[in-house]
Design goal:
This protein is of the alpha/beta class. It contains 12 helices and 19 strands. Helix content is 24%, strand content 27%. Strands 3, 4, 5, 10, 11, 18 and 19 form a 7-stranded mixed sheet that branches. Strands 14-13-12-15-16-17 form a 6-stranded parallel sheet. The structure holds NADP nicotinamide-adenine-dinucleotide phosphate (NAP) and zinc ion. Pfam families: ADH_N (PF08240), ADH_zinc_N (PF00107). Its cofactor is Zn(2+).
């Protein structure tokens, strides 16, 4: 008989899990492997709440494997390190992001692109290298191979820095890969001003881009300009402004989490412009061919980033004082936070104060 999540490993852990597609989270006792020779055990301090957590607990993508303990924006303290661990010592402040495993020998891994390794394993809702299930950061500790642990730079706050581990790298990587940072002053549209979108504005400004937020929420305009530093704001429901902005952008980063029309976004691009899709709506989007073909435009995608680039992004954010704007919540406030996230009602990332609010019953 298969062992229960609580008894299959020696290391007892407490967290919160969703049990079915209602997505309701509740206390959950489980276990993790003992710290191995290459592992770091992390006492979790803070964990960000990504929209991917919400998609997963609701089974939006059809492959949720319950119980699911979400959470992949983890900041904590290393409490144990294996004998082969050279990068970290006990007491170090560390981060864990979206992936915790890969084959470490394929072409992608050799190029520091573990995120595209065919055997990459996610921090939660996935099976780890030992064949047992991975559980995420809505819990008191996690055991991770050192390759997938990040040094958390001095000066970067643990709470508002946590969302960089997913939201930060997810927007940073395509800016570099698609050439947005090569020439200062290029015009970037950021579609969707949520967790990813608001960090995209800050990182893009630090790279010297001109940034326009493309949003469905008129009420976000003032803050986008005055607090986040966007150069302008476009409401998708204002046909006149959308019309006036046609053909003005070199790039668009699309972070919208729900099904939406690409046609108006593609129209905003200049000839040869690129739209980079980051959002993962539950159903496929329609891809209109005319604006692509007639304007030599391109649609691409991007999935988080490799470990080396994630470290580079954290160091970049520390240097430029970039953090997320967060609403700090207690663990038992997670269900109402998820309801608000579903309505895009968060400024702009919930972060769980795990160490101060997660207490076993
Ligand atoms: P989020 O905080 O909920 O932000 C998403 C934004 O999309 C909302 O704030 C809203 O912005 C807009 N939006 C939501 N519903 C909409 C609708 N029905 N129509 C138009 N706009 C809508 O989510 P997030 O954490 O930033 O994640 C965004 C998406 O990226 C999710 O699908 C997530 O799974 C995915 N993701 C991908 C990666 C990757 O590696 N590619 C990594 C992390 C997350 P406005 O109010 O401004 O319109
Ligand atoms: Zn995420």
């Amino acid at each position: 008989m298969a062992k229960s999540p609580e008894t299959e490993h020696p290391n007892k852990v407490f967290g919160w899990a969703a049990r079915d597609k209602s997505g309701v989270l509740s206390p959950f006792n489980f276990s993790r492997r003992d710290n191995g020779e290459n592992d770091v055990t992390v006492k979790i301090l803070f964990c960000g709440v990504c929209h991917t957590d919400l998609h997963t607990i609701k089974n939006d993508w059809g492959y949720s494997y319950y119980p699911v303990v979400p959470g992949h924006e983890i900041v904590g303290i290393a409490t144990k390190v294996g004998k082969n661990v050279t990068k970290f010592k006990e007491g170090d402040r560390v981060g864990v992001g979206v992936i915790t495993g890969s084959c470490q020998s394929c072409e992608s891994c050799d190029q520091d692109l573990e995120n595209y390794c065919p055997q990459m394993s996610f921090t939660y809702n996935a099976i780890g290298a030992d064949g047992t299930k991975n559980y995420g950061g809505y819990s008191d500790n996690i055991v991770v191979d050192q390759r997938f642990v990040l040094r958390f730079p001095e000066g970067l706050p643990s709470d508002s820095g946590a969302p960089l581990l997913c939201a930060g790298i997810t927007v940073y990587s395509p800016m570099k890969y698609y050439g947005m940072t090569e020439e200062a002053g290029k015009h970037l549209g950021v579609a969707g001003l949520g967790g990813l979108g608001h960090v995209a504005v800050k990182i893009a400004k630090a790279f010297g881009l001109k940034v326009t937020v493309i949003s469905s929420s008129p009420k976000k305009e003032e803050e986008a300009i005055t607090q986040l530093g966007a150069d302008s704001f476009l409401v998708t429901t204002d046909p006149q402004k959308m019309q006036a902005a046609i053909g003005t952008m070199d790039y668009i980063i699309d972070t919208v989490s729900a099904v939406h029309a690409l046609y108006p976004l593609l129209g905003l691009l200049k000839v040869s412009g690129k739209l980079i899709a980051l959002g993962l709506p539950e159903k496929p989007l329609e891809l209109p061919m005319f604006p692509l073909v007639l304007g030599r435009k391109m649609v691409g995608g991007s999935d988080i980033g490799g470990m080396k680039e994630t470290q580079e992004m954290l160091d970049f954010c520390a240097k430029h004082n970039i953090t997320a704007d967060i609403e700090l919540i207690k663990m038992d406030e997670i269900n109402s936070a998820m309801e608000r996230l579903a309505k895009s009602d968060v400024k702009y990332r919930f972060v769980i104060d795990v160490a101060n609010s997660l207490s076993p019953p």
